[in-house]
Amino acid sequence: MKPLVSIIMGSTSDLPVMEKACKWLEQQEIPFEVNALSAHRTPDAVETFAKEAKGRGIKVIIAGAGMAAALPGVIAASTSLPVIGVPIKGMLDGLDAMLSIIQMPPGIPVATVGVNGAQNAAVLAAEMMALGDEAIARKIDNWKASLGAKIEKANKELADIKDYKFKC
């Protein structure tokens, strides 16, 4: 089995956020890999990773980063693969990371999800791959259909609450 998605984080301190992407891809049975690489502490390794990812069969890269959040952009500068940035909440509630990720120069796009939005990054990566893979497209369709069922169940549970005198 070869990974289709590569999940990269600046350090293992980002794992509590990024594992949401891992868990979603695992549930959907989409092969992925996980690595810690730092744009500032291991810049040569980041560049080598980005340049070799496509040749290894990677289709989409998810890169989580906090504070200066350079990792997604540095990766995007060295590959033609789509890169999805996950701003990680840090010093300014993640606003610093989000602004760093979305302010990319022309020709170096990085898709960006919300702060700590690693699961959405995994969904977006799968949606990108689904354009050319019917099996992944079906998995996404089934998963999205289940979202409505969860809300319907929650609404029924709310209707059954009888603990309030003025609840109609």
Write the SSE topology:
Blueprint: E1 5-9, H1 15-27, E2 32-36, H2 43-53, E3 60-66, H3 71-77, E4 83-88, H4 95-102, E5 111-112, H5 118-130, H6 134-159
Parallel strand pairs: 1-2, 1-3, 3-4, 4-5
Describe this structure in words.
By secondary structure, this protein is an alpha/beta fold. Strands 2-1-3-4-5 form a five-stranded parallel beta sheet, sandwiched between helices. The protein starts with a strand and ends in a 9-residue tail after the last helix.
Main sheet summary = 5 strands, parallel
Order of helices and strands: EHEHEHEHEHH
Radius of gyration using CA atoms only: 18 Å
Rounded mean pLDDT is: 95
Global structural class? alpha/beta
Query: How far is the first residue's CA from the last residue's CA?
Result: 54 Å
Quick description:
The protein is an alpha/beta fold and 168 residues long. It has 6 helices and 5 strands, in the order E-H-E-H-E-H-E-H-E-H-H. The radius of gyration is 18 Å and the shape is globular.
Q: Could you list some keywords that capture this structure?
A:
168 residues, alpha/beta, 5-stranded parallel sheet, 6 helices, 46% helix, globular
